[in-house]
Design a protein that fits this description.
It is a single chain. With 230 residues, the chain is an alpha+beta fold. The protein is built from 3 helices and 11 strands. A 4-stranded mixed beta sheet has the order 1-2-3-4. Strands 7-6-9-10 form a 4-stranded antiparallel beta sheet, with no helix packed on it. A 3-stranded mixed beta sheet has the order 8-5-11, with no helix packed on it. The two termini are 67 Å apart.
């Protein structure tokens, strides 16, 4: 599998590490440490090393919109096959000046998490950046305009078909401009735009209803909710 610089951060980190390992004359494959074929089975012959990314760690978060996100990608390197071959491959990496080697032991718990058997291995860490797009802010070409509207008071009652007041029901304008709760008598009051029809949303007791109030209506609104009374 080939990894190109113009792909995502994991692909770029893999490409950088594979290129560095190629300089020390070690044949490398990207392969899960629990794979049943390939390096683990010795199918390739000669000194082979398997590389697997197992963690992505954030290094710095963008300070401003558009700043890059810096990440550190950690890799597990292990060799299999005949014992002498595996040691030779890892020795080439240790003595070859690979810049990404991490001076930390491989946690035993990592092998368990990956479902692989414990063996001699190395850790590498590659830093990469992820470009983030700055939000596009539209250019303001005209001064802001302030529109004024007249408000009217909309009153009403929420009740059952039998006329029982429903207390604590949330009554709101569907556009989110105003909201109120019914009182102990089921009454509510909302400021709404005058001379415009209003769509109300009624929520509570497991119900979600809507009602349309005409613009010319000046009488209190009665909203009847079908509800099972216990």
């Amino acid at each position: 599998m080939r990894y190109h610089e113009d792909h995502g951060p994991l692909a770029r980190a893999s490409a950088l590490l594979l290129a560095s390992l190629a300089e020390v004359d070690v044949a490398v494959r990207v392969e899960h440490p629990a794979a049943a074929v390939g390096v683990q089975s010795g199918a390739f012959g000669g000194p082979w090393v398997a590389v697997w990314p197992y963690a992505v760690l954030p290094e710095t978060l963008p300070a401003r919109p558009g700043d890059p996100l810096r990440l550190r990608v950690r890799f597990l390197l292990h060799a299999d096959g005949p014992e002498a071959t595996a040691i030779e491959a890892l020795d080439r990496i240790l003595t070859g000046g690979v810049p990404y080697l991490l001076a930390e032991p491989v946690p035993d718990t990592l092998w368990t998490a990956l479902g692989a058997r414990l063996r001699v291995a190395l850790l590498c860490e590659v830093a990469v950046q992820v470009a983030t797009a700055a939000p596009r802010i539209p250019r303001v070409t005209e001064p802001p305009r302030l529109d004024t509207v007249s408000l009217r008071r909309l009153t009403g009652r929420v009740q059952t078909p039998g006329g029982v007041a429903l207390v604590g029901m949330r009554v709101s304008a569907a556009d989110g401009t105003a909201a109120s709760y019914t009182d102990t008598r089921g009454h509510f009051e909302l400021p709404v735009v005058a001379d415009r029809p209003v769509r109300l949303a009624v929520a509570g007791r497991g119900l979600l209803l809507s009602a349309e109030v005409p613009a010319a209506s000046a009488e209190p609104v009665v909203i009847t909710c079908e509800i099972q009374e216990v």
